[in-house]
């Protein structure tokens, strides 16, 4: 057996999605649908991955090339699409010299796993091998028609099926392994003799059997791997299935999820043992959470790293590659954006820490803001170790506050604060005795005059 190639059918318009974005770029648990497929193919050993593009093809290609720079992913165009067989035909030139198995997979089945694809490749000993599933109602899916010996005789599309064939519960999952040379020879002989007037890839199965070659169907152990996306409803359903799977894996690895129904974790997130995720927690992108942490409730962490023993939340946000050292505390209504906090930094209330470096054991008082953007440039605030930032301090970046320094509450800090210094940057308080009584009397007289004058 030669090297394995894969053709991903991703050219469909999918009008039922009602979206300007190609359906293969819609995210499922944070990763575009097509990326799920490409990653599964690579993990299953496909050395070449060829994506057939059409609708919004330029955008699809640009997104894939940006995410998979340097990897062997090729693109071919399907102009004026005329069915799945026509889509597969477009890869012929790219695979003209290929002498090994060819996987053909849909671009809209994000739960299709590397394990399932590997199982198909292992089962394939020539001819054609396909993935099927047994459903209570096969609905609009093509039906697997088996011969008396149990081999696959044909695949009949639902719109072309007889009443007897529609009663068949085994459906075609549109995932195939073919021998490369024979696949393209048979694709050339496809004809649009069907209710849709299209070139069906499924007709290759009948041709393979007619040539005396074996056709096998591997029945999926989990029907979810066969599910595709054609509507926003199905997109939500697959997000839910994968989210539950990810949370289950975390819980089995030693993470406590207090309310899985309201906890959201994306592909690529890691969480350490004995960490507790409270309701309303969202962990996104490449976020890494250490051990023994408490996250949430109602906290969003995106592409950030949280060290062991941290407490983040409630109502907190980390984003932009924020990094928390061990034992940090980020409390309610605190946001950290592109900040690096050393161990045991505490910011408990109502603060924005953007583009910031903070040393160990520093305390950030309530209402502190790092003013990191002047309308043109993002600048950095550097705060040393064991510093004390008083409540409602405003730190105008770029600025540095030294180790062990203190800023008085309400200060606007625009200049460097040396180590161990106290910075006070606010107007001196002055009290005008009796002034408020006089002010109120004046305001009352003015109000009475307005009322009298109508």
Automatic annotation (TrEMBL):
<feature type="binding site">
    <location>
        <position position="409"/>
    </location>
    <ligand>
        <name>acetyl-CoA</name>
    </ligand>
</feature>
<feature type="binding site">
    <location>
        <position position="23"/>
    </location>
    <ligand>
        <name>UDP-N-acetyl-alpha-D-glucosamine</name>
    </ligand>
</feature>
<dbReference type="InterPro" id="IPR011004">
    <property type="entry name" value="Trimer_LpxA-like_sf"/>
</dbReference>
<feature type="binding site">
    <location>
        <position position="363"/>
    </location>
    <ligand>
        <name>UDP-N-acetyl-alpha-D-glucosamine</name>
    </ligand>
</feature>
<dbReference type="GO" id="GO:0009245">
    <property type="term" value="P:lipid A biosynthetic process"/>
</dbReference>
<dbReference type="GO" id="GO:0003977">
    <property type="term" value="F:UDP-N-acetylglucosamine diphosphorylase activity"/>
</dbReference>
<keyword id="KW-0548">Nucleotidyltransferase</keyword>
<keyword id="KW-0573">Peptidoglycan synthesis</keyword>
<keyword id="KW-0460">Magnesium</keyword>
<feature type="region of interest" description="Disordered">
    <location>
        <begin position="429"/>
        <end position="454"/>
    </location>
</feature>
<keyword id="KW-0961">Cell wall biogenesis/degradation</keyword>
<dbReference type="GO" id="GO:0000287">
    <property type="term" value="F:magnesium ion binding"/>
</dbReference>
<dbReference type="GO" id="GO:0009252">
    <property type="term" value="P:peptidoglycan biosynthetic process"/>
</dbReference>
<dbReference type="GO" id="GO:0008360">
    <property type="term" value="P:regulation of cell shape"/>
</dbReference>
<comment type="function">
    <text>Catalyzes the last two sequential reactions in the de novo biosynthetic pathway for UDP-N-acetylglucosamine (UDP-GlcNAc). The C-terminal domain catalyzes the transfer of acetyl group from acetyl coenzyme A to glucosamine-1-phosphate (GlcN-1-P) to produce N-acetylglucosamine-1-phosphate (GlcNAc-1-P), which is converted into UDP-GlcNAc by the transfer of uridine 5-monophosphate (from uridine 5-triphosphate), a reaction catalyzed by the N-terminal domain.</text>
</comment>
<feature type="region of interest" description="Pyrophosphorylase">
    <location>
        <begin position="1"/>
        <end position="232"/>
    </location>
</feature>
<dbReference type="InterPro" id="IPR005882">
    <property type="entry name" value="Bifunctional_GlmU"/>
</dbReference>
<keyword id="KW-0511">Multifunctional enzyme</keyword>
<keyword id="KW-0808">Transferase</keyword>
<feature type="binding site">
    <location>
        <begin position="372"/>
        <end position="373"/>
    </location>
    <ligand>
        <name>acetyl-CoA</name>
    </ligand>
</feature>
<comment type="similarity">
    <text>In the N-terminal section; belongs to the N-acetylglucosamine-1-phosphate uridyltransferase family.</text>
</comment>
<feature type="binding site">
    <location>
        <position position="108"/>
    </location>
    <ligand>
        <name>Mg(2+)</name>
    </ligand>
</feature>
<feature type="region of interest" description="N-acetyltransferase">
    <location>
        <begin position="254"/>
        <end position="454"/>
    </location>
</feature>
<comment type="pathway">
    <text>Bacterial outer membrane biogenesis; LPS lipid A biosynthesis.</text>
</comment>
<feature type="binding site">
    <location>
        <position position="157"/>
    </location>
    <ligand>
        <name>UDP-N-acetyl-alpha-D-glucosamine</name>
    </ligand>
</feature>
<protein>
    <recommendedName>
        <fullName>Bifunctional protein GlmU</fullName>
        <ecNumber>2.7.7.23</ecNumber>
        <ecNumber>2.3.1.157</ecNumber>
    </recommendedName>
</protein>
<feature type="domain" description="MobA-like NTP transferase">
    <location>
        <begin position="6"/>
        <end position="166"/>
    </location>
</feature>
<dbReference type="GO" id="GO:0019134">
    <property type="term" value="F:glucosamine-1-phosphate N-acetyltransferase activity"/>
</dbReference>
<feature type="binding site">
    <location>
        <position position="78"/>
    </location>
    <ligand>
        <name>UDP-N-acetyl-alpha-D-glucosamine</name>
    </ligand>
</feature>
<dbReference type="GO" id="GO:0071555">
    <property type="term" value="P:cell wall organization"/>
</dbReference>
<feature type="binding site">
    <location>
        <position position="391"/>
    </location>
    <ligand>
        <name>acetyl-CoA</name>
    </ligand>
</feature>
<comment type="subunit">
    <text>Homotrimer.</text>
</comment>
<feature type="binding site">
    <location>
        <position position="337"/>
    </location>
    <ligand>
        <name>UDP-N-acetyl-alpha-D-glucosamine</name>
    </ligand>
</feature>
<dbReference type="InterPro" id="IPR025877">
    <property type="entry name" value="MobA-like_NTP_Trfase"/>
</dbReference>
<feature type="binding site">
    <location>
        <position position="426"/>
    </location>
    <ligand>
        <name>acetyl-CoA</name>
    </ligand>
</feature>
<dbReference type="GO" id="GO:0016020">
    <property type="term" value="C:membrane"/>
</dbReference>
<keyword id="KW-0963">Cytoplasm</keyword>
<feature type="binding site">
    <location>
        <position position="230"/>
    </location>
    <ligand>
        <name>UDP-N-acetyl-alpha-D-glucosamine</name>
    </ligand>
</feature>
<feature type="binding site">
    <location>
        <begin position="9"/>
        <end position="12"/>
    </location>
    <ligand>
        <name>UDP-N-acetyl-alpha-D-glucosamine</name>
    </ligand>
</feature>
<dbReference type="Pfam" id="PF12804">
    <property type="entry name" value="NTP_transf_3"/>
</dbReference>
<feature type="binding site">
    <location>
        <position position="352"/>
    </location>
    <ligand>
        <name>UDP-N-acetyl-alpha-D-glucosamine</name>
    </ligand>
</feature>
<comment type="similarity">
    <text>In the C-terminal section; belongs to the transferase hexapeptide repeat family.</text>
</comment>
């Amino acid at each position: 057996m030669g090297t394995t190639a894969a053709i991903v059918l991703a050219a469909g318009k999918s009008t039922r999605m009602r979206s300007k974005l190609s359906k293969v770029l819609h995210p499922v648990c944070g990763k575009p649908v097509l990326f799920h497929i490409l990653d599964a193919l690579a993990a299953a050993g496909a050395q070449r991955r060829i994506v057939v593009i059409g609708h919004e093809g330029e955008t699809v290609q640009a997104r894939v090339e940006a995410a998979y720079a340097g990897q062997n992913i090729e693109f071919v165009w399907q102009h004026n699409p005329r069915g799945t067989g026509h889509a597969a035909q477009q890869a012929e030139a790219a695979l003209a010299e290929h002498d090994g198995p060819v996987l053909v997979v849909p671009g809209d089945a994000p739960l299709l796993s590397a394990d399932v694809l590997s199982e198909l490749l292992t089962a394939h000993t020539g001819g054609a091998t396909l993935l099927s599933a047994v459903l209570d109602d096969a609905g609009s899916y093509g039906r697997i028609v088996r011969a008396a010996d149990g081999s696959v005789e044909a695949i009949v599309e639902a719109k072309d099926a007889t009443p007897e064939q529609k009663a068949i519960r085994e459906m075609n999952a549109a995932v195939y392994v073919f021998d490369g040379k024979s696949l393209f020879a048979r694709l050339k002989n496809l004809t649009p003799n069907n209710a849709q007037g299209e070139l069906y890839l499924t007709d290759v199965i009948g041709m393979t059997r007619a040539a005396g070659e074996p056709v096998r169907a591997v029945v999926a152990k989990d029907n979810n791997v066969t599910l595709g996306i054609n509507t926003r409803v199905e997109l939500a359903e697959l997000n839910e299935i994968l989210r539950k799977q990810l949370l289950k894996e975390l819980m089995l690895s030693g993470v406590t999820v207090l309310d899985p129904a309201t906890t959201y974790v994306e592909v690529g997130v890691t969480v350490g043992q004995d960490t507790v995720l409270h309701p309303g927690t969202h962990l996104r992108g490449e976020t890494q959470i250490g051990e023994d942490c408490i996250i949430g409730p109602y906290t969003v962490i995106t592409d950030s790293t949280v060290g062991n023993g941290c407490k983040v939340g409630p109502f907190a946000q980390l984003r932009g590659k924020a990094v928390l050292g061990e034992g940090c505390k980020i409390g309610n209504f605190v946001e950290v954006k592109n900040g690096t906090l050393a161990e045991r930094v505490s910011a408990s209330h109502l603060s924005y820490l953007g583009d910031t470096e903070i040393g160990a054991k520093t305390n950030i008082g309530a209402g502190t803001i790092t003013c990191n953007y002047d309308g043109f440039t993002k600048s950095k605030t550097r705060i040393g170790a064991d510093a004390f930032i008083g409540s409602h301090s405003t730190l105008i970046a770029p600025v540095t506050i030294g180790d062990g320094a203190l800023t008085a509450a309400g200060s606007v800090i625009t200049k460097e604060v040396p180590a161990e210094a106290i910075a006070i940057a606010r107007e001196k308080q002055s009290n005008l005795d009796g002034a408020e009584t006089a002010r109120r009397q004046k305001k009352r007289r003015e109000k009475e005059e307005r009322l009298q004058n109508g």
